[in-house]
Amino acid sequence: MMLRKLILAAGVAVALLAPAYAAEPQTFKTEDSATAFCKTGNVVWFNPTSKIYFDPGSQFYGKTKAGGFTCKALAEKAGFRVNKGNQAARSVRGVRHFAF
Hints:
There is one protein chain. This protein has 100 residues and is an alpha+beta fold. It contains four helices and four strands; from the N terminus they run H-H-E-E-E-H-E-H. The radius of gyration is 20 Å and the shape is elongated. Mean pLDDT is 78; it is low at 12-20 and 87-95.
């Protein structure tokens, strides 16, 4: 009984200390098939090597050797992060500029 508890405790400790690697997000072969699943405005291109995703209009959207189209939420859930070049554009999106 004691050995059984010790083995169980060791297994739990290993599971907690091991790094968690999320699987790649669901991948679509075309932007259109991703849009049909994710809805318009939610499709990104992800690069599995760098664990970065790219929004439409960014320099590497659909252009890296490895990667594919997926939903933004699925990419984030899998641990991908937005490329830094998109952050500036995201901060001004939706802001109206007025000329005085």
